[in-house]
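This part of the workshop introduces the protein records we will be handling. To make this concrete, we reproduce a full record directly below.
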Amino acid sequence: MDNDLNVTPAADAAEQSKQDRSKKEKEKKGFIANLLEWVELFAVSVAIVMTVLVCIGRHSPVIGSSMNETLQQDDLLIISDLFYTPKQGDIIVFESQKTTYEKPYVKRIIATSGQTVDYDRSTGEVTVDGKLLYEDYAVYKGIERTYYNAGIEYPYTVPEGHVFVMGDNRWNSTDSRDIGPVDQRCIIGHVIFRLFPFKNFRTF
């Protein structure tokens, strides 16, 4: 009897230790399984995003300060021209056939075909079809230029198949006031969202 009593606690301890090890192994396997699921989900998500970008969009960096404060130098934009029809207020990326500048421009559409733009150089106010635009995004800094290269006289009616664009940093932007209206065929795409820097991610 004494021997049986001495052996039983040791056997119980061994059994408990075995159960503890089994529990820890299960917990470890569960953690690894969950981790693998998250890694797989992340990989699939990245693959989907990349596929979408390749199929319907492309990226374009911001160069210069003409769209401050809405966009900043080196912001990375995702743009698309899929089923796109230009609309007033859209931010677009386009190439100009009227300048020797080789990089794409990033500007905001102020007016589309058939609309009439009026621009007050002294105040920076913009009127479209007789209505003053509310532009809380526009920034006026520096000294207003006294001339523009496009030779546009205001009020100005945007010709068919074109858009009138301006930079949000209104007094430091080369836009339709300089290069004239933009041919819609030169539009590379409209901005869908700002991808980078990640802390400033936003849609448009």
